[in-house]
Specification:
Elements (H helix, E strand, L loop, with lengths): L3 H36 L4 H27 L10 H16 L3 H24 L6 H28 L1
Helix pairs in contact: 1-2, 1-3, 1-4, 2-5, 3-4, 4-5
Length: 158
């Protein structure tokens, strides 16, 4: 028979896995968004930048999947509906924008800032296992570095 403590641990690990799954979906969304962005820009440097970000997000997704599996939960295998809407809007915006590379970069920057907030919220969660805490911090720092790089790229395009 399971004790109340076992049930609390189970609920807690499910809750953490659910939050990790949300991050996982958002990383799938970001990866697809970056690949979409790379297809919609002419600048060789921006194409490389967006492809690197997509690759980074793919790696984040693999690492999150591994953590979720270690908790005995099932990882998501695709992005969210909201992500599809965001990517479609990004495509539409790039099609109609007069300076589409700048608009795409601005949209990517907005997406990264939202990702950063998501990571910050989860990192504040008390009693995170050390492996998850370290992983989230690593991802958060990489996203912050990408934001800093995007700001520089945006200034170069302006």
């Amino acid at each position: 028979m399971k004790s109340q403590n076992d049930k609390d641990i189970m609920t807690y690990s499910e809750e953490i896995s659910n939050q990790l799954n949300e991050l996982l979906e958002k990383n799938y969304d970001a990866e697809k968004g970056y690949l979409n962005a790379a297809d919609n820009v002419e600048s060789k440097n921006l194409k490389i930048f967006f492809k690197r970000r997509a690759s980074e997000r793919s790696e984040f997704a693999k690492e999150l999947r591994t953590e979720i599996l270690q908790y005995g939960e099932i990882p998501e295998d695709s992005g969210s509906f909201k992500g599809v809407v965001h990517r479609n809007w990004m495509s539409l915006k790039s099609t109609f924008s007069s300076n589409n590379e700048e608009a795409i970069l601005e949209e990517a920057l907005r997406g990264e800032k939202a990702s950063l907030e998501e990571y910050n919220d989860l990192i504040k969660e008390p009693n995170l296992p050390p492996s998850i805490d370290a992983l989230l911090l690593k991802h958060k720092n990489a996203i912050q570095a990408a934001i800093n790089t995007e700001k520089v790229e945006e200034e170069l395009l302006a």
